[in-house]
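Sequence only, no structure available. Ideas?
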Amino acid sequence: MSNPCLVRSSNLIIWLFLSAVVSPAVGQKLVSERGQVSFFSDAALEDIHAVNKKAVSILNLTTGDIGFSVQIKEFRFDQSLMEEHFNEKYLNSDTYPKSTFQGKITGVNASATGIQHVQAAGKLMIHGVTKDVDIPGTLENQDGKWQLKSKFKILIKDYRIEIPQLLWEKVAEEVEVTVDFLYKNQ
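Reply:
I predicted one. Tokens follow.
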């Protein structure tokens, strides 16, 4: 179990990082302190699914700037052995403790209500490797509560995640990532 003082300290550092990467321009800034990021790997022998409910994000509706950070060790699996292998053998979470995204969302109308189809373009960092990505999603405004959802795929080889030859049938080369952030005003 995590030490609460270390978790709060880690969250503060992430929060400072996100505040720095999202434009300091005056605008409507939204924060999400308990977003959910999950991934699904559909492999020949075994499906792998993990959920992280402690992702943090900040979004500036005026500028479209967005940033989020995900602590790798916070992903939870159905099987503890999968979680151990994920952290120790694949993602090397002691060396690469977080994944981040920094970019801009286009297609946002801050005064609109309902669902808007948006596109995020920016830099996604996983396993110490940063790639330019374009990610489709939706941004919904219901009575001033904003929710961002996205589903996209990544190739694990693009992020230098190596799968041992013995396990190639258990881990897919392509992983589906799902993001869900519920924001409140900062």
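The radius of gyration is 17 Å.
Hope that gets you unstuck.
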